[in-house]
Amino acid sequence: NDFLLMGTQNGLLIYRIMEDGTPAFVSQYQHITSCDPVVANPEYAYVTLRASECREAAVGAANQLDVIDISNIEIPTLVNSFEMDEPRGLGLDGDALFICEGASGLRVFSAVDPINLVEINHLTDIHAVDVITLDGLLIVVGPDRLVQLDYTDINDIKIISEINITP
Which residue, 61, 81, 97, 121, shows the most beta carbons closer than 10 Å to its own? Predict the structure, then answer.
């Protein structure tokens, strides 16, 4: 809507976009130092925290997905956390949540109950770093290829195309 959510290495920052287009700070949710991608709908933000690169050897380092209630945008509240392998980029399309886990693949969750996510698929043959969702089409970015998936049937995800990338 009229908010900008930014994942930082120290937490989730929430800004309101003013009529003139400038951002104005509203609130934040802080966590331990981490890489912090974020996606959101009007009520919940999904944040992946990764225990490598951004916070090597940090005390309490963990690989997890945090679900943050942002229905009261001024008081973001952690409502659940899920253990992950190596979470990276993520995408949200309606009730479908896609989480990249590097060499561990791509996990697909049903977010019908946004607090109690249910894993419905785990594609282990894709090295997934980031994703882009677009009405039933998913572009998965990996270190050596782009993969386009059709997820119009979330229970039967199909590869449509692949493009090799030479590093």
Answer: 97
Q: How many CB atoms lie within 10 A of CB 65?
A: 20
Q: Where are the beta strands (DSSP E) in 11-166?
A: 11-17, 23-30, 38-40, 44-49, 64-69, 77-83, 90-93, 96-100, 106-110, 118-123, 130-134, 137-141, 145-150, 158-164
**For residue 158, pLDDT beyond 90:** yes
Find where tokens 């896609």 sit: 98
Tokens of 94: 């309606």
Tokens 């697909």 label which residue?
108
Tokens coding 23: 């951002």
What's the pLDDT tens digit per position in 44-89? 999 988 876 655 545 556 788 999 999 999 999 999 999 998 899 9
How far are the Cα atoms of 14, 121, 139 from residue 43, in angstroms, in the given order?
13, 24, 25
Strand 106-110 vs strand 118-123: parallel, antiparallel, or unpaired?
antiparallel
Q: 167 pLDDT band (50/70/90 cuts)?
A: low
